[in-house]
Specification:
The structure is a homotetramer of 319-residue chains. By secondary structure, the first copy, chain A, is an alpha/beta fold. Chain A folds into two domains: 4-121 and 290-304, NAD(P)-binding Rossmann-like Domain (Rossmann fold, 3-Layer(aba) Sandwich), CATH 3.40.50.720; 123-287, Dihydrodipicolinate Reductase, domain 2. Chain A is built from twelve helices and 13 strands. Chain A has helices at 14-17, 36-42, 55-65, 83-87, 95-99, 105-108, 123-137, 167-170, 184-196, 229-239, 257-260, 289-304; strands at residues 4-6, 31-33, 46-48, 69-71, 101-102, 117-119, 146-152, 175-176, 202-208, 215-222, 246-248, 266-273, 278-285. In chain A, strands 8-9-7-10-13-12-11 form a seven-stranded mixed sheet. Chain A is globular and about 60 Å long. Chains in contact: A-B, A-C, A-D, B-C, B-D, C-D. At the A-C interface, helix 8 of A face helix 8 of C.
């Protein structure tokens, strides 16, 4: 790491702000004001982890200065017309939206090498799209409404102190939030369309549960007639054969976000329910790794031509 | 309390087995072998909290001895033909199934006074049926598949020591379990049919989250054309007007299992999603109170002609 | 409840700010600016739960207006000379310090009836003083240094959103804080002196653990020669005989903060360690009840001449 | 890994029993009955993680067959005469007790290379001995009673399903256990004697808190006259200068078990309390890493002549 930009913490080290990193070389780096030219000069590649709406203005200045950018915000994941409704702003640099690669390597790997701008997917969107795309592509479910029920630990809300994610408000709390307007809704739709060609409508209902890390999405699709759990499972297994970060479970086995904790792995399981004509696909991942920073590294590896699995753990810190 | 039956703990007091109850009169009660005649002689009403499959044989002997029974197991909640498939046993006393009142007072209150046998509903079924029945009855959703996504704390699994509900296996774990074969599935179907006359198929996908108490069900129904969040909310509010234990939230407000903790209250919220034609109803309750013991007391109050809300808290232990 | 003073939340109801109270009569009360005369006119007794340092100025104006005050801050617990060093302010109304009754009913009950001003004790101080006073008074330990190791859940830090008590920073975190300068140190010393006449020096080392409610203090005293676990236990049992809110455990039994959760009970256990000449007394309580609001009600009951145990639960919400 | 011995799980793979390891080469290893000769033939070094009392009989048979053993039980940590009182058995192979190296590398590193048998220290003992030994060796505290207050997550109790460590019994529970008879008491005494020559008596009071991983020990020593926090800190810093796994915090900074989670690091902080003449040293580590398996690897590295820090993380999984 050669540059750490900041706002409130300018003038302190990364390690002072994140004490568990104090012992790493990166921990001794002083945080400074963002300067696109300085960043581009210092770095082979830039990870941008800014609030939604800030990145859209800033990332292009870094790109213009010559460094590729992996953007962890939502600012380059959608088409321009989606931003006012779902993110509340008019996109300031729409030309870059066409340039941006949607960074879900398991589905769009071939577009990453040499890319200038990668839109790193959202945590829920990663889980839901990897769950549904192969099933829809194979015609095992109808391209009708995709209903995604999400569960997440609190770390997805970031590090800022909020009463709603305090320990007191979170212990024994189970509650939905920000639906049906959550911004991962159009991202799920677009990712599925990019991967399968099917234009679908999605409903996404996220819930907060008393965990720090962990996302589980339970996706409900209208199953094609006669589809069995085995066929769904085989479809997923074939789609992700050889993938280092996807674990498709055998019929009857159940995913667990804890088994993905601290890793870049997503676990997937599928069940066909003949009684209601439903194909259920459940995905579990660590929202801070496969759902954010880990997938960003996976994308960076691809952009730079490094072996894709470099520096990405697959064995959980368990228990 | 006049009698406490037990198996493994015979010869110890209730308070020795449950130290937090040691200070109550009931805590000093010695636990003894079940004896239907002794129980019926000692009690005006019997709460039966036996494992599924045990109650079906035992409750009738108490009933024959003359005491009404509130059964907390699943043994009297379904019709006879459902037991082999969903519970794995042939029902031994099917005649009592017709006699049993399904104890969801908000929907079936008038059948409780003087009832001999009350089938106390399951925690998930309580939440899902109270969520869906008014909407289906009013025609605001089609009587098609009812998809219920459940989240629960571990106390629903009982007190027995299991590796799967140990603290180590539960912290930061989010995982589905026992679906699509969970035994609350037919109970949801039957409860909806009893309340609305509609024969529906249900899919129920429960998930374990790192909480002790708390159940949230998120029910997905096919909305009737043009239905709005307001109409769904009004429908629920009208259905449960004056109910001491149902809190229907205003549009936009979100339920929270923590606000129901330690109480006999269920919180309900409804959202219409026009994009996918879905009516979503979310219910939150404390699985040990409204989802079990509290509702049992509510039913006992009704059976015995005591004021229905007696001894049932409505203010949560929060935080 | 007839009056609810506030600062940031003026103009909203108690129930809007604390949704779990929305259903209570108090929940419908509108919060207004503090007005000592209005409060005193409206109330038979005032609970003051202001930040440390604010109460010292405000409570006397209410007292002058004629209403007795139970103060939950630390502002009337010490002698005047302690405030600069331990609380960082010069006490503005030192005359009231002599008037104030230290509200630990089990030790100072006789001073409460009719009192004008009660200093409601701190959570840790309550546990430590009730643990040590009888042992020191009986001469079973030397009046030398009292070393108190405290463990607490996060709710003691209040409801304000802090990064340090966020769910993310708290899960799996065990850490000491603010020692040796914690302001409960002189309170422990003073409480012991008031109760036993012994002037002792205390060391208090609090630790935060991943719980919401719960305080455990482990107090280490220099045992008098030959003292046994049984003698320590008998001493505590005799001191607290008949007390409705003190549970002295038999030798070998271990206290548990969870068994006190939601109650006004403190559990106490004592152990003599002959090898090191130590008398260990462990106390466990709910910091929000016996450690704060519950004890305040207990004091209010005494001040007003109501039966002392009124409205104070003794059975835990468990599990 | 070349051999995995088991008892109940013979015939299944390591990965089947520990699903998060399924993807590793070790995960595919079949577990077989313990056979000392087979183990010794297959392995350069054997990690023995058997219940206390089993290892004492089995480890010598492996040693006789020619492989060095790192023993994670308590069976080779004490002198022979301590076993009946603290572990409840007569030691069957006392000759090996003299041979065994107490595996605390920061204090006894020079004895490990080429050792046949290493007694891997207990988690609490590791924290307490590393906390106290330098202070006592330097004469900054008197070699009088060492009082150690411990706090731990539940994983120290192992993986077996126990009601006491279920999620239901652990959430919001804070409680002491098994004191003053905990078997780490004599281990702390012996480790301090080995390191400093001082014969001291220890009192150890462990407490369970609602965490999975994490141990904090707060050690109370009688400070030598005039000792300051700075001198205590300097003493620790000098003693552990250059140690890759010890982090001595500056005066005023507070240790946090969470910052050590998933790492082989121990954090230490010291405070002198002049008012009570106490030197307080607080240590925090991950009981499964520096407190068990990580330190075992550290010892194995030393025994085999591999670089000591190989395969041992120092950056926490945080949050």
């Amino acid at each position: 790491m050669t540059f750490a930009g900041a706002k409130g913490s300018v003038g302190t080290t990364v390690g002072a702000s994140h004490p568990h990193l104090a012992g790493l070389p990166a921990g001794r780096l002083m945080m400074t004001e963002m300067d696109p030219d300085a960043v581009a000069a210092a770095a082979d590649l830039v990870f941008s982890a800014l609030p939604n709406g800030t990145s859209a203005g800033l990332a292009p200045t870094i790109l213009d200065a010559g460094a590729p950018v992996i953007d962890l915000a939502g600012d380059f994941r959608l088409s321009a017309e989606s931003y006012p409704a779902w993110y509340g702003f008019e996109h300031p640099t729409p030309a870059w939206l066409d340039e941006a690669v949607y960074g879900l390597p398991e589905l769009f790997r071939e577009r990453a090498p040499g890319a200038k701008l990668v839109a790193n997917p959202g945590c829920f969107a990663t889980a839901a799209i990897l769950s549904c795309a192969p099933i829809l592509a194979a015609g095992l479910a109808e391209p009708g409404p995709v209903r995604v029920d999400g569960k997440t630990g609190v770390s997805g809300a970031g590090r800022a102190a909020l009463e709603s994610t305090s320990f007191g408000a979170t212990e024994d709390s189970i509650r939905p939030y920000r639906f049906p307007a959550h911004q991962h809704t159009p991202e799920i739709e677009r990712g599925i369309e990019l991967a399968t060609g099917h234009v679908v409508k999605a409903l996404f209902v996220p819930h907060l549960v008393p965990a720090v890390r962990g996302v589980v999405t339970t996706s409900y699709l209208a199953a094609a007639p006669g589809v069995s759990t085995e066929r769904l499972t085989d479809c997923l297994a074939a789609a992700y054969e050889g993938e280092p970060f996807v674990r498709v479970l055998a019929p009857g086995a159940m995913v667990d976000a804890k088994r993905a904790r601290g890793t870049n792995v997503i676990e997937l399981q599928a069940v066909a329910d003949g009684r209601t004509g439903t194909a259920v696909v459940v995905g579990a991942l660590d929202n801070l790794v496969k759902g954010a920073a880990g997938q960003a590294i996976q994308n960076a590896n691809l952009v730079l031509g490094i072996a894709e699995a470099t520096a990405l753990p697959t064995t959980a810190v368990y228990p």
